[in-house]
Structure formats: C-alpha cells, structure tokens
Amino acid sequence: MSTISIYSLLFLGAFLISIVLFIIVIVNELHSAKLLKRFDDFTLKYNDEHEVSFFDQFSYYLEKWIKKIAKILKKSKVCNDYAKSYDKYIEYDEKEKKESIDYITIKFLIGIAFVLLNLFTMMLKVNKLNPISCLFTFLLGFFLPDIALKIEFQKKRKEIESGLLKAIIIMNNSFKSGKNIMQAISTVKSELDGPIADEFKKIYLDITYGLSLEVVFNRFYERVKLEDAKYIASSLTLLNKTGGNIVHVFATIEKSFFNKKRMVDELNSLTASSQFVFRVLTILPIVFTLVILILNPTYFMPLFQSAFGFFFLFLILCLYIFYILTIKKVMKVKM
C-alpha cells in the first residue's frame, strides 16, 4: 500500500471519528435536555432573559480559539506586518476586543477548511492526493475573505463620502459658535451615526493622544483613501505651515464639498442611461453563456479538451476584463 493511500485512510478515519464524536455530543445534549424536561414540573420556574443560545456558545468558543491561534501568529514579524493593512476594517467600538491579526487567523482557518474539504472530496472519488490542488484550494480559502472585506469596505467608503459633507457643516457651525476643534469633533461623533461617526471617534482618540490636527487627518485619509479626506488634510497642513483662520478654512472646505456634491449629482443624472447600458452589456455575455449551458450542457466541452481551447477561454476572459476596465475608465469623471 502506497504512502498516499495510507495518509488517505488515516485522514478518512480521523474524519469519521470526529463525526462519531460530534454525534455522541449531540445525543448526550439531547438526552440531558430530555432529563431536564422531566424535572420541569417539580422545579421552580424563573425567567432568565440572559440565557445563552447554542449559536452564541459556538461563537464564543470559536472566538476563543481564534485568539489562541492569533497569539501564535503574533510572534511572526511577517504576519504582523501583513496584518497592519487590516487595521482599517476594525471599528472604533471593536478596538478593545479585536485585532488585525485576528483577520489573518481567520484567513488561515478558512484556507485549512478548504483544504480539508478538498481532501475529503478526493477521497470520496478515490483519487490520489494532489498537492497542487491542495495549494490552490488553500489559497482560494485564504484570499476569499478579502473579497468580502473589500466589498464591505467599499460600501463603508461610500457612506463616509456621503456623510463627510454633513460632518464638515457641523464642524463649521461649531467653530462659528465659538467651540474649539475637540468640541467640534465631539459634536460630529455624537450627532452623526454610521461609519462617518466611527471615523470621527478615531480622530477624536488620536487627538487625545497628542497628535497634531495635520497628522490626525492624514491618518484619516490613509484609512479611507478618499480625495475629500486628502483635501481636508492638505488644507490643514497649509493652515499649520502658513497660519490663518480655521473658521475660514472650514467654510471654504464646506463650500467646495457642497459644489462638488451638486456637480456629482448632475453628472450622475446625465450619465444614468450610459451606466445602465454598460451594466446590461456587462451582464449579457454571462446570461447568454448560462442560457446555452441550460439548453446544451455539452456545448462548451470541446474547449476543455485541448490546450488551444484553454488558451481560447483565457483569451476571452482577458478581453472581457479589458472591456469592463476600459469602459469604466472612459465613463469615470474625476472631480
């Protein structure tokens, strides 16, 4: 018997044992619940509003294991440097209980889970273990959370961009009423909600640590990567070097943001039809491909049976991506 088949049998045995243990735990829990139900009629009833559900218990144990693995990964300088790019995903209220290294731990765990799933499917098909396939599935699981995080971050950036004008108006009105910068930022974080309030909480915390206004808003720009945040940081840098009236500076920023928002709204209304046509043309090839697969599932099989077919598929995919990027570049208007 080869080494690969021995490893396959060992893994399959370990998998079956884990399933058996899981079933035993479930049966034990059900038996305990049945015994408790027998004694319900003979015990005093009480209302426990803080009863922990099974899902909460599972989340608690999962979080505990993530923290344990994160402590091990934290010893690696490479993991710590890689984790710094995930600081922007941590909200202000989560700073005490979440670290950027936790995201790296979750990525590793998902990658390992994908590898185990791949090994299990190969064993079911009685195939030999393929290291390249395992590496591919690990990388797929490792980088898959980044897609979800980036989609969520883009949504957050849009909300921050739409709420930044409100924040500047509040700050400008605070300055006009005689408040200082700390009071103005405190007013913003208390009156607004959502991602923009969370960012101003971080700004307020940075200022309390003794950082200058210029550095604080530069850090804000590095987190959100918005041109409006860069404009604020540049204005405050100029104010710090040349001096001036902060009320006048924020009044200018407010006017500039308001004019920009009005122009963006006008451009969106003018290009709405073009955006709709672009979306339709982007979706149509995918729809036609799905329709052909439904009508004739073997229609595209010749492409997967030769090297030329794979090259042709790769070329089509590259042209499709190039088309999308080109049209988006043409339709994008920089303010």
List strands and helices in order, with pairings.
Elements: H1 3-38, H2 54-73, H3 77-83, H4 100-124, H5 131-176, H6 181-191, H7 195-208, H8 213-224, H9 227-242, H10 246-270, H11 272-295, H12 307-331
Describe, in plain words, how this protein is organized in 3D.
The structure is a single chain. Helix 3 packs across helix 4 and helix 9 (227-242) runs antiparallel to helix 10 (246-270). Among the domains are: 155-269, Up-down Bundle (Receptor-associated Protein), CATH 1.20.81; 275-331, no CATH class. It is 78% helix and 0% strand. It has 12 helices and no strands. It has helices spanning 3-38, 54-73, 77-83, 100-124, 131-176, 181-191, 195-208, 213-224, 227-242, 246-270, 272-295, 307-331. With 335 residues, the chain is an all-alpha fold. The N and C termini lie far apart (68 Å). The longest helix is centred in the middle third of the chain and has 46 residues, at 131-176. It is extended, with a radius of gyration of 28 Å.
| CATH A-level architecture of the domain at 155-269 | Up-down Bundle
Shape: extended
Low-confidence stretches: none
Number of strands: 0
* Main sheet specs: none
What is the mean predicted local confidence, pLDDT? 79
Number of continuous helical runs: 12
What does the radius of gyration come to?
Answer: 28 Å
Helix proportion range: over 70%
Task: Give a concise summary.
The protein has twelve helices and no strands.
